[in-house]
Amino acid sequence: MQKDLPPAPSNGSSGTARADHLLIAEMVEPGSRVIDVGCGDGALLQLLAARKAVDGRGIEIAPDRVKACVAHGLSVIMGDADRDLVDYPDQAFDYAILSLTIQATHEPRTVLDNLLRIGRQAIVSFPNFGHWRVRAQLLLTGRMPMTEALPEPWYATPDAHHCTIKDFVGLVRLVDAEVAEAVAFSSKGQRLPIKTSLSLQNLFGEKAVFRLARRKRRVQ
User: Fold this and answer.
1) pLDDT tens digits, residue range 158-200?
2) Rounded distance, CA 67 to CA 73, Å?
3) CATH number of the domain at 19-211, please?
4) Where are the domains of the chain?
5) Ramachandran class of 123: left when φ > 0, alpha when ψ lies in -120 to 50, beta otherwise
6) How far are the Cα atoms of 62, 88, 146 from residue 155, in angstroms, in the given order?
7) In sequence order, what DSSP letters do the residues of the chain get, joined into one string?
8) Which class for 135: exposed (0-12), middle (13-18), buried (19 or more C-beta within 10 A)?
9) CA proximity to 81, closest of 133, 7, 3, 158
10) Among 116, 123, 60, which residue's Cα sits nearest to residue 97?
11) Which residue in 15, 25, 63, 87 is deepest, having the highest Cβ count within 10 Å?
12) For residue 100, which phi and psi values (nearest 5 degrees)?
């Protein structure tokens, strides 16, 4: 059954919190050490601080957004997910978070590998290119689709690596990780939990959030 996410106070810039931010907040334990990679305007860090009292850090590539975060009292530095995660020590955080950003990185596999290295767990959200509206636009118009989850035209989007939910699950296996929790959802926050079968979620989920951990090695 689908469940609607409740609204939450925002940082004052856009009314209510993003649906993926609310889902991520539910996945984070109170008082955790968190890094938000590509933290944007700091809305997720503020939500986590308010709801979960986390020890939050952020990195962001846009200087104006870094300044805005610092002005709001957030611990954010300028950095690039593709280049700068290698500088962080192993398991420096309880959670390494990447929200709606992995598709804009140059090396998604390397970025995901680093998230799982610097965090005991990684939480990743992304737009699902397998959603039925995307498929329909490609089929009917023969052009790159634009939807609420994919709002920019192909020549203006920062997204270099669109993927489907099934694609992402394949990447999780490649980096030797396991899915601890996963939810597909709409822009309005309607949930569709991701379990063994992916076909329904891949068709109807506009976006998805995955909580990941390194696969535990079996003792011989």
Assistant:
1) 888 999 999 999 999 999 999 999 999 987 778 887 776 678 8
2) 10
3) 3.40.50.150
4) 19-211
5) beta
6) 20, 33, 12
7) ---PPPP-B-SSSSSB--HHHHHHHHHSPTT-EEEEET-TTSHHHHHHHHHH--EEEEEES-HHHHHHHHHTT--EEE--HHHHGGGSPTT-EEEEEEES-GGGSS-HHHHHHHHHHHEEEEEEEEEBTTSHHHHHHHHHH-S----SSS-S-TTT---S--B-HHHHHHHHHHTTEEEEEEEEE-TT--EEE--S--HHHHHH-SEEEEEEEEPPPPP-
8) middle
9) 158
10) 123
11) 25
12) 50, 40
The answer to whether residues 200 and 31 touch, using CB atoms and an 8 Å cutoff, is no
Tokens for 147, please give them.
């939807």
